[in-house]
Amino acid sequence: MDEYINVEDKICEEIRLWSQHALEIPNKNYNNLPSCPFAKSAWANDKVTFAFKNLSNNDLIYSLVNYFNDNKDLIIIVDMNYQNNEDFHNNLNNINEKINKSLFKQRDIWLMGFHPDDDVNDLIDDGSFEEIVEKEYALIFVQRLSKLQESANKLKKLGYYDKYYNEYNVEDIYEQRENYYRRLKWQ
């Protein structure tokens, strides 16, 4: 058991270090804004927490979606038992759709994931980050849809998306999230 706790601690440390390395510093690709302009303050204000998913089912995800509270802005689910890339992202898209259709207690939630086999986004990370954990894992971010989309709308006005809006499916993701947000606001 201690072995798992140590690996989990190292993964949390690795994610925190990567955020400092790649997300929290000004980036020319995002109009000199940090790759994630809100990451630094979220970490500083203890608004980020972790959950570890070790089973193949979605029970943990469903529970975190249903019982999300605003003590934290972001829950990072470290998925140790992830599916292949396509199934992983399809699963998250399906859950987002179910959330939007009111099949959960909460509708104001958005899931976003990163899989070890995803294409590297070289606009965010130049590949110089040195990992401290050998084990691969996927990440699922759970956060308020309204807060995320309202922030994205502000960033869009600042030219944040200009360089890569048509790459990495950003346009499709942005539009889908915007549509879900509009439905949320009108119901």
Write the layout of secondary structure elements.
Elements: H1 2-23, E1 26-27, E2 33-34, H2 39-44, E3 48-53, H3 59-66, E4 74-79, H4 85-100, E5 110-114, E6 138-143, H5 145-157, H6 170-186
Parallel strand pairs: 3-4
Antiparallel strand pairs: 1-2, 4-6, 5-6
Helix pairs in contact: 5-6
How would you describe the overall organization of this protein?
Helices cover 44% and strands 14% of the residues. The longest helix has 22 residues, at 2-23. The mean pLDDT is 90. It has helices at 2-23, 39-44, 59-66, 85-100, 145-157, 170-186; strands at 26-27, 33-34, 48-53, 74-79, 110-114, 138-143. It has one domain. The chain contains 6 helices and 6 strands, in the order H-E-E-H-E-H-E-H-E-E-H-H. The protein has 187 residues and is α+β, with helices and mostly antiparallel strands. Strands 3-4-6-5 form a 4-stranded mixed sheet, with helices on both faces. A two-stranded antiparallel sheet has the order 1-2.
